[in-house]
Amino acid sequence: MDLHEYISSGILELYVCGALSEEESREVSRELKKHPEIREEVEEIEKALSQLAVSVAPYNPESLLASIKSKIAAKKEKTVPLHRKTSSIFTYMGWAASLLLLIGLFFLFNQNNDLREALKREQTRNAQMEQQIADARENAERAEELLAIIRDRNTTRIQLAGQAVAPDSYATVFWNIDANQAFIDAQGLPEPPRGKVYQVWSLTVQPLRPTSIGLLSDFAEDENKVFQLRNANNSEAFGITLEPEGGSETPTMDQLYVMGTVGTP
Amino acid sequence: MQQDGLIQELQNGNERAFERIYQLYSESTYGIIFAIVKDEKVAEEILQDVYMKIWNNASSYDSDKGRFFTWILNIARNASIDKLRSKDFKNKRQNLQPDNFVDILETRTNYAAATDAIGIKKFLNAIEPVCKKLIDLLFFQGFTQKETAEELKMPLGTVKTKNRACIKSLRELVLE
Questions:
Q1: Where in this chain does the entry annotate a coiled-coil region (chain A) (predicted)?
Q2: How far apart are CA B24 and CA B28, in angstroms?
Q3: Which of B60, B77, B143 to mutate to test binding with chain A, by most A CBs within 10 Å of its CB?
Q4: Distance of alpha carbon B163 from alpha carbon A16, whole angstroms
Q5: pTM of this prediction?
């Protein structure tokens, strides 16, 4: 077997997650006991996933150990062993019958468990589908809302043209003056490099003064690249600059990507 | 690191071994449970039940079947999903929870002391959307490879290789 190929196939990750069938899992366990390299790899995967799970925990549940131990102790006291001495053929037959019954019960129990597992998975999937439908509905509502804003007679459309750093980029601002809302369509901007974020500025020309109206956060995540920001300024122009994460107090002018002036209505 | 001797001791009913196991695994177990039920108090209850089960059923762990970590993972996920489906829980909580582990982590301001917070943050910044889904389904929700493939409409083999790539980037950023 080519160890390297086996390791890089991704089967070990599924093994640690518990996503393989029982048979496949047994196979991996066998290989793991034969090859220290596989064992090492599995331990690394386990460590990373465990760290991830730890980070999700709201806090370290150390303090619960005492309560778990007292529950265990309470249970122990209840199960004091009974001693009784009887032995006859009937006793043995009794035991044999119970054993048979137990085996039968165990079989049923196992089957029942399998069914419950399957049901549980179906239920989880159902819940996820419901969520997806809700998400889709929400998206549709949002799109409708956008369209209404764009069609509104009070909405001014301002084209922002690419500047020296990025001559090919462009953006559009839909500014509804009555509602103090600005929608930025940033489809024409390149994805910002890691650690940077686009910041939108409202500008007045006389005197020249930039006011930040917000960041285009989660740029990469946003699929339609339309951002809603509040703008209560008497803007004469809009500009978008690339700033360090968190934004800046004043625009970094040599990172001005796009700019455009508000036309007289 | 799986300590086979320690597990053996646990299976023999050694309470010290149980305490050690609890120290080693309880925080990650709590994270898994919390990712599913999203309620600190409920997750605490489930965590206690899960460790009672670990103590009572330790002998049913078999290293030929899989890792001890995975065994605990399964107990925790099953107990949490059971709770999630129970009537009293459904009535108590509506759909106001975040979606997955990434949403939970992104709204988190302080991480547990044992976490490499910088590594996790780097990971969150770099994680691809598909990795978010894969790790959520395979690790946190306990979907099988096949179920994940169906859910994400992805070939079986892609689930396997892509998941490896995702966990690889986690390893690179979290374990240095």
A1: 112-153
A2: 8
A3: B143
A4: 12
A5: 0.57
Question: 3-state DSSP: chain B helix, strand, coil percent, rounded to 5?
Answer: 75, 0, 25
Verify that A101 and A20 share a domain, yes or no.
yes
- Are the beta carbons of B64 and A30 separated by less than 8 Å? yes
pLDDT over 80 at A89, yes or no:
no
Total domains in chain A come to: 2
Q: How far apart are CA A230 and CA A207, in angstroms?
A: 22
Q: Tokens 């300024």 map to which residue? A: A233
Q: Is residue A150 part of a domain?
A: no
Does pLDDT of B34 surpass 90?
Answer: yes
Q: What is the pLDDT of residues A57-74, one digit of tens each?
A: 988 999 999 999 988 888
Whether A73 is covered by a domain: the verdict is: yes
Is residue A144 situated within a structural domain?
no
Question: What stretch of H or E contains A185?
Answer: strand A181-185
| pLDDT tens, position by position, A145-199 | 778 877 888 888 899 999 988 889 999 999 888 888 888 999 899 988 888 999 9
Contact B52 A71 (CB under 8 A): yes
Give the closest of B48, B129, B163 to A13, CB-based.
B163
Work out the percent of chain A whose per-residue pLDDT is above 70: 95
Taking a C-beta distance cutoff of 8 angstroms, is the pair B141, A127 a contact? no
Does residue A257 share a domain with residue A168? yes
Is residue B134 predicted with pLDDT exceeding 90? yes
SS3 state at A214: strand
Give the residue numbers spanning the domain of A105.
3-113
- Residue B2 forms contact with A (CB below 8 Å): yes
Closest residue to B64, CB basis, from A14, A20, A26? A26
- Domain end: A79, A96, A113, which one? A113
**CB-CB under 8 Å, B114 with A60:** yes
In a domain, A239, yes or no: yes
The CATH number for A247's domain is 2.60.40
Q: Which of residues A83, A113, A143 is at a domain's end? A: A113
